[in-house]
Design a protein that fits this description.
By secondary structure, this protein is α/β, with parallel strands linked by helices. The protein has helices at about 15-25, 30-50, 65-80, 90-95, 100-110, 145-155, 200-205, 215-220, 230-235, 265-275, 290-295, 310, 330-340, 350-360, 375-385, 385-390, 395-405, 440-450, 455-480, 485-495, and strands spanning about 10, 55-60, 80-85, 115, 125-130, 160, 185-190, 205-210, 225-230, 250-255, 280-285, 300-305, 320-325, 345-350, 370, 410, 415-420, 425. It contains 20 helices and 18 strands.
């Protein structure tokens, strides 16, 4: 699912409504004109995706979302497409207000007829249009609305959702009881942050955006809730290197990890750091892993350490420490982590380093020189919550982690979030092939290398997450998602960082 043509600014539902009001009240854009534009935009996308469609079932609610669907119904009827227009109440028209009522009067005038849906009623259209519930819902969907959404999902017909799949929370991406699984979602005015994370990525299908020709000045009135990182951001953060460059300009990364049976994790992180442009990369690991490391990546300076005392002299030269890949939770691991924490160096902490932080109370709230990269399970342990609670509102979870621990937090998963207390950044790249072991190790190495190249913690985090995800997308384009390995990303990282993707 490509996200390359989406805007960079993300908004909550309340902010989206504020943009709509600003356009109407301050810039004299008629509300019904915006509704007409939305209906036309969604209908055009529908015909572009399903050009031979001969019949539609359009399910409309009573809000502005339903009004958009009524415009689509009228447009389809005018073009000779059979329209089954379904609503949930016999007194549907009596419940309509404002622009939605205007939309019904227009659709009725062109000949559209509506039916009240009842359980068991056949959905006759070749394509279904979901204009049932918009961004204003609160609480779980229930009653006939829930039954209809379930019926839509079981129909196995292609579905276009208008603005947002009904039943999906536009702020968090959580499913409110039940939600439509769309093949395409056309969203308007503001790109809703919940469409790009958690369950939103499973429910919105192909995502399209239309600003409905709002003046740029409208967007100057409302600050976004988050920003989507893309290749343009990467180009700004990593300008071309000077011809006179030397390795001393691009930092020294030390990766610390690789306990017995997990040496590969630390090596993947070190190799990823080298491929991400660090001037020098060192590896501190179990002595038994040094030979394999030198064989796999001779560019990495590998040292065997049996204790924290052995690690101490290796901490003097590096600019950034990456701690956690394959670290384990033994006494050896604890000693190495304590030495790293005491070094005063910028840190990237992943995997077992995070678990040790939580279990052995090494938490040093207020540190501003570390990047923590938990997946939802690790985040839940750090917060004392259940994983499902973290996933239900990933934005709140990453804010709470940052408030408690300081620094920069990367909450991994679909729609990974990076937050440093000021800017919230979301990565919409990536694919399900990344659901395999070792991916986090590669990410930590990338972030460590970017941090060593003098990027701020938040810029290293958000850029690293994007590079990692985009490299995975290149792999998937070449050979598919299933069977993707973490090591497959490492050579593609170089392509992404060089702008060859």
């Amino acid at each position: 699912m490509s996200r390359s043509d989406l805007p960079g600014a993300l908004y909550t539902a309340a902010q989206s409504r504020a943009l709509d009001r600003t356009a109407i009240e301050q810039f004299a854009v008629p509300g019904f004109r915006l509704m007409q534009r939305a209906g036309h935009a969604a209908f055009a996308e529908l015909l572009g995706r399903w050009p031979g469609v001969r019949s539609l079932t359009i399910v409309c609610g009573t809000g502005n979302n339903g009004g958009d669907g009524l415009i689509m119904a009228g447009l389809a009827w005018q073009q000779g497409i059979q329209v089954q227009l379904l609503v949930l109440a016999e007194d549907y028209v009596d419940r309509l207000q404002g622009e939605a009522l205007d939309a019904w009067r227009w659709a009725d005038a062109v000949g559209v007829q509506l039916q009240c849906w009842r359980p068991g009623m056949e959905l006759a259209g070749e394509v279904l249009v979901d204009a049932l519930l918009g961004t204003g819902i609160s609480g779980e969907v229930s009653g006939e609305a829930a039954e209809l959404i379930t019926h839509i999902n079981r129909s196995h017909r292609p579905v276009l959702s208008v603005d947002i799949p009904s039943g999906l929370c536009s702020d968090t991406g959580a499913v409110l009881g039940v939600a439509v699984r769309a093949d395409m979602t056309v969203t308007f005015i503001a790109l809703k942050q919940g469409l790009l994370t958690h369950a939103g990525v499973d429910h919105c299908g192909e995502l399209k955006f239309d600003g409905l020709l709002l003046p740029d000045e409208v967007y100057e009135e409302i600050s976004p809730s988050a920003f989507r990182t893309d290749r343009d951001d990467l180009a700004k953060l990593l300008p071309p290197r000077r011809r006179s460059s030397h390795k001393g300009l691009f930092g020294h990364v030390l990766v610390i990890g690789g306990d017995y049976g997990m040496g590969g994790a630390a090596l993947m992180a070190a190799e990823a750091a080298a491929r991400s442009g660090a001037g020098l990369v060192s590896l501190a690991t179990r002595p038994e892993h040094v030979t394999a490391a030198l064989t796999r990546a001779p560019e990495v300076m590998a040292s065997g350490v049996n204790s924290g005392q052995d690690l101490q002299p290796l901490l003097e030269r590096p600019d950034v420490l990456v701690v956690g890949p394959g670290l384990g939770q033994s006494a050896w691991a604890d000693q190495l982590l304590q030495k790293a924490l005491a070094s005063g160096k910028p840190l990237v902490l992943d995997a077992d380093a995070l678990n040790l932080l939580q279990q052995r109370q090494h938490l040093q709230a207020g540190r501003h020189d570390w990047v923590l990269t938990p997946h939802p399970g690790e985040a839940a342990r750090l917060l004392g919550q259940e994983t499902a609670q973290v996933q239900q509102n990933r934005f709140d979870a990453v804010r709470e982690l940052q408030q408690q621990l300081g620094g920069t937090i990367v909450l991994k998963g679909a729609g990974s979030l990076s937050f440093d207390g000021d800017g919230m950044h979301l990565c919409s790249a990536g694919n399900p092939g990344m659901a395999c072991g070792g991916m986090g190790d590669v990410l930590s190495g990338i972030i460590g290398a970017l941090r060593a190249q003098r990027l701020s913690a938040i810029d290293a985090a958000r850029a690293g997450v994007y590079v990692h995800a985009r490299a995975a997308d290149l792999c998937a384009l070449e050979q598919g998602e299933r069977g993707l390995l973490a090591t497959d990303l490492i050579t593609r990282v170089r392509r992404v960082l060089s702008g060859f993707d």
